[in-house]
Amino acid sequence: MTRDLDALTGGTFDVLVVGGGIYGLTIALDAAQRGLSVALVERDDFGSGASFNHLRTIHGGLRYLQSLDVGRARESVRERRTVARIAPQSVRPLPFAVPLYRSLLRGKLAMRAGFALDRVVSASRNRGVPTSHRLPAGRVVSRSHAIQRFPGLRRQGLTGAAVFYDYVTTEPDRFTFSFAVAATGHGAVLANHVEAVAPLVDPAGGRRVIGVSARDMLGTGTLDIAARVVVNATGAGVDRLLKPLNTSTGIKMLKAMNLVTRRDAGDEALGGRSSTGRNLFLVPWRERAVFGTWESERVCDPEDAAVEERDVAALIAELNQAFPALDLTLSDITLVHRGMVPAVVHGDRAALDGHEQVRDHAREGIEGIVSVAGAKFTTARAVAERITDTLLSKLGHAPVPCRTATTPLPGGSVRDIGLAIADARREYDEGLPTDTIPHLIAAYGSRYLDVMGIAAGRPEWRTRIASDSPVIGAELILAARKEMAPTLADIVIRRTPLGALGHPGDAALARAAAIVGAEYKWSDERRREEIAAVERFYRGMSASARSSTSSTPA
Ligand SMILES: Cc1cc2nc3c(=O)[nH]c(=O)nc-3n(C[C@H](O)[C@H](O)[C@H](O)COP(=O)(O)OP(=O)(O)OC[C@H]3O[C@@H](n4cnc5c(N)ncnc54)[C@H](O)[C@@H]3O)c2cc1C
Known about the structure:
By secondary structure, the chain is an alpha+beta fold. The chain has helices at about 5-10, 20-35, 60-65, 70-85, 110-120, 145-150, 170-185, 240, 310-320, 380-395, 415-430, 435-445, 450-455, 475-480, 490-495, 505-520, 525-540; strands at about 10-20, 40, 55-60, 90-100, 140, 160-170, 190, 195-200, 210-215, 220-230, 255-265, 270-275, 280-285, 290-295, 305-310, 335-345, 350, 355-360, 370-375, 550. The strands form three sheets. Strands 3, 4, 5, 6, 11, 12, 13, 14, 16 and 17 form a ten-stranded mixed beta sheet that branches. Strands 1, 2, 7, 8, 9, 10, 18 and 19 form an eight-stranded mixed beta sheet that branches. It has a two-stranded antiparallel sheet with strand order 15-20.
């Protein structure tokens, strides 16, 4: 993948997607795979917005059954299964245990009824899924079983536990990025660090959008990108792009947050309920405990995703109520995930809207632009399929079947992860850190050979960058050479999981900057600037934080 801005201005695309989060990327892939000419611009890096900050879980939509939203639950089951089919290396089954107490609506009886319905709704959850990824049905277990198997659950008043299974994404940012690779493979022209500033309107009159004016965030250039239809997939920025058109979606947003901690985690996700009634989860990810998801109770300014230290402190207090043995403190927090998600508003209270919002602005008399605000990472592909159907019809194109649910993503042709790891170990393990091969298979799937090819070039590219991370130098080189990662932050935070849990440490950062800098031939000054940009990303993210945090590189 190369960042070629000239390729964006050479002609008129069928579709220009603005925003390279999971929604924009899945739309770009689907539209390109169905034969449309596609461009995509992303202001920061691919997957650096809300899509970087999700709780890493791919849900089967059990919660939708509480409100008997069977359609939504079915879609979630289908999409969860799809991820296991098209990118099995990216996910693994994760048991969740939620404590049950005496309650009519949340007690054992209610959960048994919920699981009975779920067994029907999710009957096909394992169809076509590798054996290692088959998910058992949910069940209710006794108090003694719950205490024995899940000692972290709150015991006071405990009557048992609801145990169910979902997937956790092992390398979520590589998974998101694989849609960019796939879209490029189908001829889409993608560029990160390019901001769409305003829609271009047809000078011949009418209210028709014919592209966007954009600017290169790494240089000083501006560019006009022409397209027959623009898809506004800018997440929290959805209304900002529409401002020059004097319209808006009116979609309200609330703030959501997870805490990544330095605490070790076992093999199960645990649920807990705080005294405010919030359902919170401990999700094990990269052997650490991630807690979430907290959502603000009021609508927020979508342009201000900063999380105040008092919000973090309040969430810590709630977590300590929900998991009494936890004793979490601010000093345990290594990264704050946060982002904006669509909200439904009741009076002055806001709640998560589980439904994506899609607006074809033709309804307001503005042709050529469609906006989408995604609600769930899990269901982005399905939403992209519906939007691409709309795009084909808007463009007067004959219907073309969608294939994104059945075509493996790049690297996703691995069917047996255990076997792939064993084969790779036999062939390449010598001299590599012990945890590197499993990491490479999870991150790159069958494309791990690209990393091995580079690793063969120099012994120092076969060694770790940080003592507590399996990432090796060759991955940084691959990102720089082939994965459109022009900044150190792109490489350290998203193309590799070197800094995914928090600041990787000064020595590791300097080492990464030296490797990437040598590849890009950066001057010493440029190398210092790149390190400073990574530092800005982490500044304020941990216990010693100032009063607000940001997870977006400045
Ligand atoms: C804390 C948290 C926890 C969550 N947990 C889960 C979970 O466990 N499971 C789940 O399924 N979902 C979860 N979600 C929801 C999920 O993360 C989102 O629904 C999804 O990531 C939204 O993707 P998106 O592409 O719409 O937005 P984003 O990922 O925000 O992408 C929008 C992109 O547009 C870019 N952009 C903005 N303006 C411009 C412009 N003018 N020009 C160019 N680019 C622009 C931004 O930089 C950004 O990268 C969670 C969300 C949060 C915040």
